[in-house]
Amino acid sequence: MTTNKTKIDTLVVGAGQAGVAMSEHLSRLGVPHLVLERNRIAEAWRTGRWDSLVANGPAWHDRFPGLEFDMDPDAFAGKDQVADYFEAYARKFNAPIRTGVEVRKVVRNADRPGFTVDTSDGVIEARQVVVATGPFQRPVIPPIAPQDPRVLQMHSAAYRNPQQLPEGAVLVVGAGSSGVQIADELQRAGKQVYLSVGAHDRPPRAYRNRDFCWWLGVLGEWDAETMQPGKEHVTIAVSGARGGHTVDFRRLAHQGMTLVGLTKAFDNGVVSFEANLADNIARGDENYLALLDAADAYIARNGLDLPEEPEARVMLPDPPCLTRPILELDLVKANVATIIWATGYSVDYSWLQVDAFKDNGKPRHQRGVSSEPGVYFVGLPWLSRRGSAFIWGVWHDARHIAEHIVKQRIYFEYRDAAQRQADREAATQSASLMGAR
Ligand SMILES: Cc1cc2nc3c(=O)[nH]c(=O)nc-3n(C[C@H](O)[C@H](O)[C@H](O)COP(=O)(O)OP(=O)(O)OC[C@H]3O[C@@H](n4cnc5c(N)ncnc54)[C@H](O)[C@@H]3O)c2cc1C
């Protein structure tokens, strides 16, 4: 039986980048709060991903406004450097973070404002709850995954390094930033790799001396508030690995990787692929070239002196796997010993027992302000804009949410004339009692 009961104005659940940003803004605005983190600060960066992961954006960009990385600003921080950065950031303003405490249940109080929160270390009463538990919680493996004991299967969340895998070829399903980086690493380690490529965007790593993060910034794309229609299932393939480079599927194929279309089904040890590889690569090229065009137009319009880069438009010849795509692969004959599912994540809000979700289980909110008063979400993709789930973007969303909390506190603390009169009388009475002592 727990006896430990704490009262706090605002409880933040999770101390990844979203929770740290939230705490900074609440501290700045003088909102009493507590951040509970079941592991350590920025644990997802420290242990939740593969060993060689580096940030996808350069250090000057993928950071909060108040602190720079202690490294070359154009380089890409390693995952531990990113985790260290958030720890240092939290120390900078003495963030009230308690680590090793899990939030197990949140319910709205029936007879008074706020929420009762069950944690692994007692019960907390909170007026507001900010959910900063991240967009990438539960690895998703699609139901088509075969029950085949001959093949080792893992989600990209469980992949650490090539030495972890048995001898033999690897099928990597999914060619977003995780899938393409893992496939590249495995191929460089000498593995035969099949990479299943779906719809993707693949911006140039850099163009005319500017990183694509800069281009998306000046072209207003990080701030886009709605996803282009039809882009819901389009992943983004970028990489900061080995100093950063453009993801070029043709180059990967010329280096020996076998590209295949979207993985369709497994039947009796045979995997089949959609006949959409060429189309997916073509759409990715279109996206790549559109960014070059937009960048050229921006340079011309603003009269910038940035060196021309015509070679960025030169495409390698189509490799055989693109012109004569494989539609079926017998896993045993192809010696495929491992399948890595780089197929994304979902969220888990089973602990959050409030009326804040749509029928599809997604949070119902406007810029992170939930339809359930007092509940907030921060760090989700497209929470307010394209940049919302990225390091710098979450900081701006957290500011909006902290300001909303302050506004609500002002409303809540409002006293009408009768209440103010009662307050004055109580103050006078208590002063005269003090005087009589
Ligand atoms: C492979 C990969 C690479 C990425 N690379 C980049 C990049 O280069 N640049 C970039 O800007 N973004 C990148 N992102 C996206 C995003 O920045 C990260 O996913 C980031 O970790 C999200 O931060 P967050 O704080 O929202 O969530 P998380 O970092 O996941 O933090 C949430 C925290 O909540 C805690 N938690 C969850 N449930 C509870 C509970 N019930 N009680 C207490 N604590 C709880 C967790 O332990 C966790 O520490 C990447 C994402 C992935 C998957």
How does the SSE layout of this entry go?
Blueprint: E1 5-13, H1 17-28, E2 33-37, H2 43-47, H3 79-92, E3 97-99, E4 103-108, E5 115-119, E6 122-131, E7 138-139, E8 152-155, E9 169-173, H4 177-188, E10 193-196, E11 200-201, E12 206-207, E13 210-211, H5 212-218, E14 235-236, H6 249-254, E15 258-260, E16 263-267, E17 270-273, H7 277-302, H8 320-323, E18 328-330, E19 336-341, E20 345-346, E21 352-353, E22 365-366, E23 369-370, E24 375-377, H9 391-413, H10 417-436
Parallel strand pairs: 1-2, 1-6, 2-3, 4-21, 6-24, 8-19, 9-10, 9-19, 10-15, 11-14
Antiparallel strand pairs: 4-5, 5-6, 7-20, 12-13, 16-17, 17-18, 22-23
Bound molecules: flavin-adenine dinucleotide.
Flavin-adenine dinucleotide binds next to helix 1, strand 2 and helix 2.
Explain the overall architecture.
With 437 residues, the chain is an alpha/beta fold. It has 2 domains: 5-137 and 347-420, FAD/NAD(P)-binding domain (3-Layer(bba) Sandwich), CATH 3.50.50.60; 140-343, FAD/NAD(P)-binding domain. The protein contains 10 helices and 24 strands. Strands 1, 2, 3, 4, 5, 6, 21 and 24 form an 8-stranded mixed beta sheet that branches. Strands 8-19-9-10-15 form a 5-stranded parallel beta sheet. Strands 16-17-18 form a 3-stranded antiparallel beta sheet, with no helix packed on it. Strand 12 (206-207) and strand 13 (210-211) form a beta hairpin. Helix 1 (17-28) crosses helix 9. The longest helix is centred in the middle third of the chain and has 26 residues, at 277-302. The two termini are 43 Å apart. The model has no long low-confidence stretch (mean pLDDT 95).
